[in-house]
User: Which sequence fits this backbone?
């Protein structure tokens, strides 16, 4: 498949598996899994046909490992990023000393006043990779990377989770744990 087709299919799968399964009449279970046969059938019926091979190619080539296929090969889910209510079954984990969050300068005043909130998603998304933080922030405009004092947050009772694909998640980051790094 051409890279642009892979990207478009990946975006479609993100939309369906994170945000709007109902758009194609699909149901996810409590842990966010969809049957692959059902997904392929519903996608085709909604004018977005794809083969199992194409689906697997998206999962395998996803730069951020956005999706997981169950061990029995029957189901697929998004590893993180949901806005719909799913329980991924993530276990709390101790974060590294610092984590990063990339955002746009236009959000800075609000973030430094109220802290980082999860907005539409389940959690605030953080990364241990500065380059990833930069690319996430660039999606919104002039990028600014916030450094989160994760060790101190954790020591002071905040819970962190690490998704299957290595994204660090937490409920909220109060402004006192943030510093700005242009
Ligand atoms: C901002 C990508 C004003 C926040 C990435 C962000 C990630 C505030 C936006 C994943 C705020 C929410 C998630 C406040 C937060 N005032 N703005 N108090 N608190 N914000 O898309 O972290 O490519 O929900 O800075 O790798 O950008 O989709 O979160 O700009 O892991 O797989 O509100 O998406 O992964 O935006 O991105 P998002 P995010 P994928």
Assistant:
């Amino acid at each position: 498949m051409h890279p642009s087709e892979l990207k478009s299919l990946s975006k479609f799968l993100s939309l369906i598996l994170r945000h709007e399964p109902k758009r194609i009449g699909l149901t996810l279970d409590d842990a966010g899994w969809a049957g692959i046969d059902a997904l392929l059938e519903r996608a085709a019926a909604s004018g977005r046909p794809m083969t199992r091979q194409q689906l697997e190619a998206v999962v395998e080539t996803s730069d951020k490992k956005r999706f997981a296929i169950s061990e029995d090969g029957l189901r697929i889910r998004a590893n993180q990023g949901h806005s719909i209510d799913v329980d991924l079954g993530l276990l709390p984990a101790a974060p590294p000393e610092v984590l990063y969050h990339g955002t746009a300068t236009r959000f800075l005043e609000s973030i430094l006043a109220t802290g980082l909130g999860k907005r539409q998603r389940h959690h605030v998304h953080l990364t241990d990779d500065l380059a990833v933080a930069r690319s996430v922030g660039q999606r919104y405009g002039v990028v600014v990377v916030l450094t989160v004092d994760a060790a101190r947050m954790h020591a002071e009772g905040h819970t962190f989770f690490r998704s299957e694909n290595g994204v660090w998640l937490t409920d909220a980051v109060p402004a006192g744990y943030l510093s700005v790094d242009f």
User: Anything to note?
Assistant: The chain has a mean pLDDT of 96. Residues 99-181 form a domain with the ADP-ribosylation fold fold (CATH 3.20.170.30). The helical segments are 3-19, 36-45, 52-61, 108-114, 130-138, 150-155.
